Amino acid sequence: MAFSPPPSDDDCRAAVEASTNFPAHSEAARSIGVTVSQLKSRIRLFYERGLGGTKPVLPGYRISKTTAVTNEDGDIVREFIQQRPELGEAFEVPPGHAIKGVSALVDSGGRTIQQWIEDGEVPAVKLGSCWYIPAEWLFPILPPDHPDRREADRQP
What we know:
By secondary structure, this protein is α+β, with helices and mostly antiparallel strands. It has helices spanning 9-21, 25-32, 36-48, 135-138, and strands spanning 61-70, 76-85, 97-106, 112-121, 125-127, 130-132.
């Protein structure tokens, strides 16, 4: 399983422009042909990559936090920029492996904080000149009462 490549700087720039031109994220996302989640992700990446005006972002790093101190007139007096190492490459399942499941650490609102992808070797057995792979590795086994299960497959 391969994930789609991260959005380009131009994609992120377009997301920021759309969010400033429309009053709601849903309208902005629709205008550039992405979901609201993708729009928000691209806006976050825009600022992490330092495209929003902070300078300099070190090679191999991303902006993780910015803080500005202003005077009584609202002018920026001091600015603090926190940078962290750039995140890794997209995950790809190694050859001969299959994804067994995904575990997630979530906050009280159900938002994902961290995720683990569990994979393992596909349990194949060679019988004569053929390889046998258990069906549950090819097709998920649904519980008897699952709505996607066909009526003919259900047992009383």
